[in-house]
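## tool: complex_structure
## caller: assistant
## args:
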Amino acid sequence: LAKTTQPISMDSYEGQEVNITCSHNNIATNDYITWYQQFPSQGPRFIIQGYKTKVTNEVASLFIPADRKSSTLSLPRVSLSDTAVYYCLVGDINYGQNFVFGPGTRLSVLP
Amino acid sequence: DAGVIQSPRHEVTEMGQEVTLRCKPISGHNSLFWYRQTMMRGLELLIYFNNNVPIDDSGMPEDRFSAKMPNASFSTLKIQPSEPRDSAVYFCASSQGEYTGELFFGEGSRLTVL
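## result:
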């Protein structure tokens, strides 16, 4: 399993773009990068997944540099409702034991 | 479409009692995961099944914990006997295909062992 490192917490203000970076220096060739969001009293929710370069969906963008040793989740124009914990998972998605969640990044969006 | 359904949502029991948590995965999903979440240890992967077969149970804390998946639409996580340190939120998740990386989580079962 590729070890991941994320900031423990981040603060932002409504309307700002938020970038959360995840370091994964020992990422392997078959590893994908997946981000989840968790609100209090709810289960995690899939946000986005990528292998290299840039992936964008209706919720977020995921930027992955060529060496793939880090990745950045970008949330455009956050609102108060984006306050949550964000998890970065790195692993071969063909093996269920790779779905291991670290401590995540607690994002607080302030008015 | 119905998501992953877990029951009970809340359970309060006394130490030594048996606890059974239930999960109904999304129809058509063939992988199922059980997680436990506490403030101290975060989200821990306990066990996962693929096509109803347990693949990896290395995360199960001890022999007091057992999980079964008798068919594609039902799984149980049992704790016998329960202890106060088992108090946590237990999540069930399912995914489609072999592993897509996209897990769909239930709302969790909050267990309190007194």
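## assistant note: The first strand of chain A starts at residue 9 and ends at 13. The two ends of chain A are 38 Å apart (CA to CA). Handing back to user.
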